[in-house]
């Protein structure tokens, strides 16, 4: 049952609720307990073919030659799909809202950038026939130097993982190589502090391990359309991504999602649908593309590894006066959603605590690892872990109870956050008090009497003077080209590129439906 402390938050919520706090049966509960819930893989279509993908054996290598001639002659093989067969072979999910550049091929063409990257798709009458044909594909690799550590990837001379981002960092607004937060003078705050504590926190990649692996079934429908049964968590993202990659209007597809057999963020990327649809287009038959368990565990996108450095200045009375954070998100070989995770992380600093001097640098870094993706609060979860571990260590350093230490530093209504927004409806103090009460953890009376609604504002509401930094110069706009696009690379020219023409007032849609962007707050195609 949900408990709300009406003595503390009398005006926060109407008690006349119909569902919250009551034991209401889930809509899909009966199907789950009787085993009758329908999943995408329950659809068995007549004449269905099966697609399997040959994956890279190297973390970083140039593809000298790919020979599929023997595989094409194998029994039961209906089609071999190469990168040149994909209409638009480069994509990144958030490009649908103009956030980032297309950097990931559906099928590798000239290079592979992580072990397990898809190279060739085999479409056959059965999974066994597809696997046997895959074994006959010959790939001549030229291994290249690899980098697997985020800080090593940022050093001069490190191998370039992703040519779209040659410095191995995602570029924000075509200028910035990381997310910044500056509030007050952190160096002065650290110099004035009685104690300074610096710690390093490391989180490893985590596989979602859903019971149902990633997969999709695509089948030709009437009027040149295709019906797609899919395990995706992000149905509309998947529709528009497939429309973009296959270069057709989004109303070409009828996507049917239904029950997801476990996702947790790992089924946000559109991994199987584009190739399944393309295979259905090329063969005129239904096509099933499902990750095997080994594929899911080894090559399914994990929660990205994160490395976080926190340096705090604290006074003897327990007040934190400065916090300096440097964080690295391991995006793997391609962007996926890691660039967004870094934005979320910077927006969450410095945690729910009033600190007058805050400095944050958050990098999205490319390495030769499997591309990372969303997972349960990604961008915040690891940072929360690091911050709260740091709070315990700081409390121990100054000899204070960790509960009381949090109450002392917690946001109060009217305080100024490091993002220059007034703190409102804060409740950390009350949450800590209730947690201590239920855990029978003793805290002193003066801390029991503290409130999030008192003693905030005033000097705590001031925006401190912050040293200004010189902004980097925006690079000249140029057409995006990469060596692994479908087109032929444009020769380098000694002449600077002409300025791009101004965009039309109402751009013509290329695919998809008009959507609202939560990042930019604008409507776009």
Task: Describe the protein.
With 525 residues, the chain is an alpha+beta fold. 21% of the residues lie in helices and 20% in strands. The chain is built from 13 helices and 19 strands. A 7-stranded mixed beta sheet has the order 3-7-1-14-11-12-13, sandwiched between helices. A 5-stranded mixed beta sheet has the order 9-17-16-15-10, sandwiched between helices. Helix 6 (235-246) packs across helix 7. The longest helix has 18 residues, at 381-398. The two termini are 43 Å apart. The model is unreliable at 478-497 and 502-525 (pLDDT under 50).
Give me the secondary-structure topology.
Blueprint: H1 29-34, E1 49-55, E2 61-67, H2 69-72, E3 77-81, E4 90-91, E5 104-105, E6 111-112, E7 118-124, H3 127-134, E8 138-143, H4 150-153, E9 179-183, H5 186-192, E10 195-203, E11 215-220, E12 226-230, H6 235-246, E13 253-256, H7 273-283, E14 287-290, H8 293-299, E15 306-314, E16 320-332, H9 338-348, E17 358-366, H10 381-398, H11 402-409, H12 428-438, H13 445-448, E18 515-516, E19 523-524
Parallel strand pairs: 1-14, 12-13, 16-17
Antiparallel strand pairs: 1-7, 2-6, 2-8, 3-7, 4-5, 9-17, 10-15, 11-12, 11-14, 15-16, 18-19
Helix pairs in contact: 6-7, 11-12
Give a nutshell description of this structure.
This protein has helices spanning 29-34, 69-72, 127-134, 150-153, 186-192, 235-246, 273-283, 293-299, 338-348, 381-398, 402-409, 428-438, 445-448, and strands at 49-55, 61-67, 77-81, 90-91, 104-105, 111-112, 118-124, 138-143, 179-183, 195-203, 215-220, 226-230, 253-256, 287-290, 306-314, 320-332, 358-366, 515-516, 523-524. It is of the alpha+beta class and 525 residues long.
